Structures
1.
Amino acid sequence: MIKSLQKSITPLTTDAVKAFQYHQVVRFAVNLLISILLVKSSLPLSDIGVFESLLFLSGVLTMVWMIGVTQAYTSTYHKSTAEQQSTLFFFSFLLITGLVILTSLVVYLFRSKIAGLFFDSEELPYLELVLLYAVLTAPSVLIEYRFLVKNQARHLVHYTHLNFGIYLILIVWALIYHPGLETLFTALLIWASLRFLYLMTLIRFRIADSSVIRNGEYLHYVLSLFLAAFLGVGMDYVDSFLVLHYFDSGYYAVFRYGARELPLSLLLLSSLSNAIVPKLVYYDLQGADIRQRTLKLMHWLFPPAILLMFLSPYLYEWAYSAEFIPSAYIFNIYLLILTSRVLLPQSYCLARKQSRILVVSGIVELVMNFILSIWWVNIWGVYGLAGATVTAYMIQKLILIRYNQRVNYIPLKQYLHIGWYAYYTSLLVLAFGLSIMLKQ
């Protein structure tokens, strides 16, 4: 048993891609545990809904800048000299921090209008704390990406344990000491401050070689990634905005706890997609084993997804309460996104800096999601919103697959085992259909 455990742990400390995936898995596990602790605590459902809504607002302020900058950083790092790499890290820090501060100022100036959008009121509760948390936490995402591009797997694993261990301890302390929104945000600010201070120790506060960012090509690339990230994140937030518009803040928590993909699937596949980009760049698109890695993940992810189609109502009632059973059926729809997640055509586009197609496909995805959401919410309610997200995301992936085939001459079979994919997809869709019949 000890040898088996050592064998499973060793790759984490030697393979930066697996270490990065592990980091995302731990993030998910801790956030899931915290969501359960919130429901089991003495906090009323309305307060939990407000807390989740405020965290959603923080994500709106930061997510686009974080995604765009980190993608530019990882796809440019290995094509730069050592001095340029140092400059890239510092410039990425300045870019994320500056843009989040600017966005936070805009939100503060128009806080009354945004409050009406989120809470149907004239004020946003704890707005100053939320904005400060966003400014501190956004640039800290560079820490894990720095370990990734430097292939420092062991450092990343140690950082993961310390980082999320402190996070969990602080939230538990807040719930035990004085359960309330102010205490929870105080705990978040302490955690964000510690991460920010650690980031400061990794930065060289000078421009060692600015040639990599002086020319307009790099800045144009970053801006195009911002737009692509905005479109991608925008699709994720369309449903949340519509739920906040059509339903009350208490029901928002019900939607948020259901609007989750298969545990680990989003994290493992998204982190693989991002983590493999430096490898594709470094090896000039040769030697990367995306097909084998995705096949292993399919074997791990599809069977539990199929099983959860039938178990989710019981699990949600056990983990939360009977009030959250509708969340289980929202969750079942989101399980279908797995059929799109295992397709990774975007990694090749990022490695080749083909940001234009990412923008175009993102626009199509966002427009289709919005149109289908408005249409289907009037037919199936909140379940229609979830179905629109699944459909729009698949359309975007099909566009990228076609682009790779026609422009990059990279067929789908190069990065996907088509036979296994067809087998698992058929079973998952069949299980979903049966779960609908059992519900009725």
2.
Amino acid sequence: MSKSETLSLLDDLVTRARKAGADAADAVSVDTVSLSVGVRLGDLERMERSEGDDIGLRVLIGKRQAMVSSSDRSPEALAQLVERAVSMARAVPEDPYAGLADPSELATELLDLQSCDPDEPSAETLLDMVRRAEDSARAVPGVTNSEGAEAGWGRSGVAFVASNGFSFEYAVTSGSVSAAVLAGDAEQGMERDYDYTSAVFMSDLRSPEDVGHEAGHRAVRRLGARKVKTCKVPVVFDPRVSRGLVGSLIGAINGAGVARGTTFLKDKMGSQIFAPGIRVVDDPHRLRGMRSRPCDGEGVATKKLNVIEDGVLTTWLLDCRSARQLGLKSTGHASRGTTSPPSPSASNFYMEAGAVTVAEMIGDITDGFYVTELFGQGVNGVTGDYSRGAAGFWIEGGEIAYPVSEITVAGNLKDMFRNLVPANDLVLRYGVDCPTLRIDGLTIAGR
């Protein structure tokens, strides 16, 4: 369906909902195409392609709100969609904070963020990429088996129309390549590791050979892993895992959680929660960013925000509903699909680089732990308690000494945030990014 046809269809749905008794309404369409390929030991294991299109209609009658969705775009199905939505809205309890965005908050300019790669890769192209990635991984000395390599590509077209006068349409793409292999044998022990790359444009991906080689190298480096005694030491988080700490911050400043009082940062607005000099940024307008968006899911204008400035928390991530609950204005962070109302989410979110190199960061550590992989979901968003299984390398005398595994890293995010130090190695690759981090005084639970 062409751009004008999609927007026309959504506009017609909103108009029919208003005629059927809705005081306000909005409609969203999401069309998706995805292609994925997987190989293991050189043999094709999976090749899948899927296409789908869904429409979601939200209607409001007073402060009552309902949302229904359908993948059937026939006139009969769309008529029933409107009828069901209006009927449900009359029956549900009132939500005092429900409503569309105020017209004064709507985006007036939609930037071209280069979020859509016009070139769709063929299945043969993806197959060639995964074979190159796995071959490169298996060629690393010490690699003895493979869990396989995968490549994927997807495109989503999003269109939105609301009765407050806003309408927009844009498309996003993403591509990825990954590989996972094993090193060692039954006698010396076996270790597994992986690597991956993802980007909006396929041309921006790292080469499959680089991904495979790094996966193999990581697996071999972990051979001979030991356990260590329980202790409190400095812990250094590799960028692959430090991103998780930034992700915990995203969850803790989500406006919906703040409004419910279910986050450990619920009363920390304007407070110093990181060391002075730390800055954390949410940037929805980064060109070719994995989470870039010209406006949010309610049509509200988006802008770059320093969420943490000089260590101080400056804002929550708010959609219209959570903003009304907190007596604030939306920050343009609404995200939505076709089956549920909007809710807050981050865009391109990252911690800025620090001043020290990774070598300098590790260099003065007598005994410490360099984390390369974390396991489990042991983060309590209400209290900030943090406890996760981990693997990586022991640091002795300022240098990486030997691999370690089967240990747990524990602390509390309030203290961890306050004491962390970022290195200067930030690379913006994904939707959430972070440099190498050092946090002193964490508990390592081992033997």
3.
Amino acid sequence: MKFVDEAVMKVQAGNGGRGCVSFRREKFIPFGGPDGGDGGNGGSVWLQAVEGINTLADFRIRRTYKAKNGQGGSGNDCTGRGGEDLYVKVPVGTTVVDEETGEQLGDLAVGGQLLKVAAGGKGGFGNQRFKSSTNRAPRQFGSGLPGEKRELRLEMKVIADVGLLGLPNAGKSTLIRAVSAARPRVADYPFTTLHPNLGVVDCGEHRSFVMADIPGLIEGAAEGAGLGIRFLKHLQRTRVLLHLIDIAPLDPEVDPVKDARAIVQELKKYDKELAAKPRWLVLNKKDLLPAKEADARAADILRRLRYKGPHFLVSGATGEGTRELCAAVMSFLEKQDRRAE
């Protein structure tokens, strides 16, 4: 199934049922009075986060969802049956935004979480509700209120512990293939991933984390250039970013330091909170250079970036250095978990 992380849907809650106009009819009771019941309430529309759904593709096929209307009231003071609520299943990690107002209605980040997105209309009053000392035979009734209508924009943000960040062809897909069972497409020519990939990295018994590979960023992404801006939201739920830098670019005129700084600027333009996340440097493709030259080039990049945080020199193609990287990430995540407790 094609990965779809944005979709627009229309929801319509059920209308309230019409109230009833009725009068009591019994032998020897000539003036029984009004006994019309109220209409039933319309059904509401709920979104429910469900594990196991990994895309919003279904909402490209079916776009409109409508709950049941409430039934009308009847005599003998009988209230009409309420319309059934409609539960629409969405992937965990879905953000719901009102398309008309731009208001964020909710963020379904936990499996089983529910969000009411359209409230059903209230049922109309029957004529027994209008009786009084001066109006003993009312013929008024309520027609029931309409249910809410909304056009919603669904945005899916994948839930991962670690996000891979970098330019196209920095080696993100190769790295995730090397450390997990994910199999994104890779090739020996420049191209970019077209949709996010998730991989579970196994670090031993009961020790694992989820890594996300998103399409590569280019300069100007925050203004809409390239594909990366569409998928930057997938990094917002991660706990640490691995910034991959190609130390052996195909074009000798390409400056890895300049490109790395450009990526950081795009992060800041997009979301300051995302830019403030822990970000480790992963200097990739050491297998393409002699060992001493790779070490020297990595040291030069770190010096020019004035970077003193965690950094790793690896080869996604051969797997060299990836075990140490994954072990460090796992330890970092476990420390965060202990602090949260």
4.
Amino acid sequence: MAMREQFDNLVVVKIGSSTLTTKDGAVDEKYISMLCEQICALHEEGYPVAIVTSGAAAAGRERLGFDARPADIPSLQACAAAGQAALTEVYAKELAKRGVACGQVLLTRRDVVDREGYLNARNTLDRLLELGAVPVVNENDTVSVSEFAFGDNDMLGAIVSALVGASLYIVLSDVEGLYTADPGVDHNASLIKEVDAIDQRIANMAGGAGSSVGTGGMASKIRAARAMLACGIPMVICNGHDPSVLMDIVHGEDVGTRFENKTAQSHSSGRKLWIGLAEVPRGVVTVDEGAAKAIVQEGASLLPVGIRSTKGTYAEGDVIRIVDQNNVELARGVTRYSSDDMVRIRGLKLDVIGRFLPHKEGMPAVHRDEMLVF
């Protein structure tokens, strides 16, 4: 923990594919130069920065001569391999011009689902920052498989923010932020400046996938924002093309949409963040209204009596999703029961469970200490 306390002003910046590529899909080196100018200016002011960058596949398509995004996985992975090299070259060149080193960090979810791997990734990022370098992080698409993919770099940025204990997570996009409706369709749509909780109304405002060169969209950004709210890390979604956007946000200007619960407690423990963000859920349980209230509002563990149904096959010790009856995800946590046992004990009080599962007497389904509540 002593090392992390050195980085009270740490900023994680995520850049989407559509933001750092030109209209024809090539890497926009002028944009990256402008971005690195801001990052180095922040460095000079005492704000360490970690970059989470998209765009590898797009950069690789250009380098390997593809006219459009390939449909087959091997070609996509080949593009990612070539593109990682191309992107890193540009970042390294532009940062070096300004006297700042960078280090490439490629991650898959497999690297962080294991607790030891999670800590190793954190230590690598911490050491780069301690040395004054800018970590340039991307998903290792060359070896990633669907089960262990982050899905989009918005969530990868959230995981990195949690790993390094960031003070702020900034998502640079090609839109100004979260609107009440799609501004391209509804001219009455207005920008939402502040969000302190992700409810169904906010979730419904997010649309589908983003551009043809990316995998994200506003929905993926809302998922990342929900995770950041749970972690106690402020997050801003904004238009990344403003040449002073990073400086403006860090200096407190009213830019984009800011997700922050100012009444939230301090950051959740590292283990809870790992459970909620890094580990792959193996199943899902649906809880009744009373259990949902107890988890979200009262800080309680999940008791079997409040579970209405369970889906998936999981073992004791696996991470599961906890959703309400509207399928809104409330939390993730480590289950104390296998899926087979959960079918047997759902809806039962603890004293009843002890009669036929004596070794589980008094045991909640998910203990509060092993649960990250969104």
